[in-house]
Amino acid sequence: MIDMKRISLEPGKRVIVISDIHANLQLFKKLLDRVNYQLDDYLFINGDLCEKGDNSLEVVEFVRSLQKSSSNVFIVKGNCDVVHRYVFQESEGIIPYMKSRKSILNEMLAKNNKRVEEFNSVKHLSTYYKAHFQDIIDWLEALPVAYETDDFIIIHAGIDPKTDWKQTDEKIALYTSFFLDKSHQAGKPVIVGHWPVINYRATDVSSHNPLVDLEKNIIAIDGGNQLKQDGQLNALIIQDGTYSYTFVDSLNHYIIIEHDHMADLNRTGTVTYPNYELKIMKRGAFFTRCQNVLLGTEQWIKNEYIIEKNDSILCKTDVSTTFLPVKRGEKVWVVDDTCEGYILVKNENGEIGWIER
Fold first, then answer.
1. How far apart, in whole angstroms, are the C-alpha atoms of residue 186 and residue 164?
2. How far are the Cα atoms of 49, 86, 109, 122 from residue 89, in angstroms, in the given order?
3. For range 132-146, the mean pLDDT
């Protein structure tokens, strides 16, 4: 049985749910400002405070301070918050991971001017972390895996489809992928992060906005912050039984559109991990019509994103395949202006797509 806490919330108060901060303290503070967070609000942080960004330790410290300042702050454990377990389990794979990634483990070393290359074994690393950072590790490990209220469940990745969802294995709770494509028997909405919502939008208009599916009783809110070039940090807001959201991102360069751009309704969607393998159907001057091999769908992909590797044709990374409708005078933020003929932009609603130069 997972470590789950049942809590009662005062009716009428605003509930704010944020997940997958991924060591991006600046963006997290910006989002709290955007939602005008007050100590009277209920604030849930649904896992993955750490990893992928530059400020894991600072995020942990800031979140702990939030928790001390209000009894209405609740933090859930995410898979990236327990990466230290690989050290204590003496997994040899943690060494190459640390050498290639931004990690709280490296930040803990840097605090004492250490580098992973100075340690001759994973066991040696384990001794270091226990000696210098046991308090933080204990705090992370003490975080519950889930919170349940009368109206919803908050868990990082997902639950098992069991009558008693509390029997969910912790590995499912922290690591399960594509939870929105699954089902459960909890009888109330399950709010998850972990798996970027854009990974569900292969054929829909490209967007990192939360997905609220009340028929399935699943709400997915991971905006791809620190993972996707156009990703964002989402806040789900619940008040009086209604759901809304807002977001912030790291895009700074914007342009004002000088004339209308029409959409092509047959060109929507996104190429997302892990569906990168392509079959060329028809080459064009700026875009190529491709069949996505794993999905079996057709997508128009910007030519600059198509590469050949090991006798396969691939999309080199995630990219929108949406042609975005934009009206004159609208402000849009630039995602990619390096390609011929078209610019990749994000509008104020969080929709991402191509417009002509």
1. 7
2. 21, 5, 18, 9
3. 98
Q: What single-letter amino acid sits at 272?
A: T
Task: Judge contact between 57 and 49, C-beta under 8 A.
Answer: no
What's the pLDDT score for residue 291? 96
Give the separation between CA 232 and CA 322, rounded to whole angstroms. 18
Task: Give the mean model confidence (pLDDT) for residues 81-106.
Answer: 97
N- to C-terminal Cα distance for the chain?
55
**The pLDDT of residue 266:** 79
Element (H, E) at 130: helix 122-132
Q: Report phi then psi at 143, rounded to 5.
A: -65, 135
Bridge partners (DSSP) of residue 224 are 232
Residue 206 is given by DSSP the state P
Beta carbons of 40 and 9 less than 8 angstroms apart: no
CB 13 within 8 A of CB 43: no
Report yes or no: 72 and 64 within 8 Å, Cβ to Cβ: no
Distance of CA 251 to the CA centre of its chain: 16
